[in-house]
Design a protein that fits this description.
The protein is mainly α. The protein has 4 helices and 3 strands. The protein is globular.
Length: about 110
């Protein structure tokens, strides 16, 4: 597993994404653009990555918006970092399973 820490949305957009399962860990509060707005922009640009939100500033409406937008997790507490490792491991396994399934289907589909 490889992790990259990026400081901004433009930095993420300019970064080459790995050819394989990818998970983005976001805060609701980002410089210039909220994490929820960034999630919407990724979806609109047809960029599909699994997203885990971790924030000390979240509330129920934010969590509903994030999950409806496709996030796989929303942790609205400062203690979320403690549980993030476990959830990230779970999410990584789930993403990898989905990735392997997609590759298997693609291999069986005639070009």
């Amino acid at each position: 597993m490889q992790a990259n820490a990026l400081a901004s949305v433009p930095e993420f957009l300019n970064e080459r994404r790995p050819d394989g399962p990818t998970c983005l860990v976001l805060d609701v509060r980002l410089p210039r653009l909220s994490g929820l707005d960034f999630q919407r922009e990724l979806s609109a640009a047809n960029i599909h990555v699994s997203i885990i939100f971790i924030t000390g500033y979240g509330d129920i409406p934010m969590s509903v918006q994030a999950i409806k937008g496709g996030a796989i997790e929303f942790r609205p507490s400062r203690s979320a970092i403690k549980t993030c490792s476990t959830r990230f491991s779970w999410a990584s396994r789930e993403i990898a399973r989905g990735w392997e399934s997609e590759k298997a289907i693609a291999a069986q589909t005639p070009s």
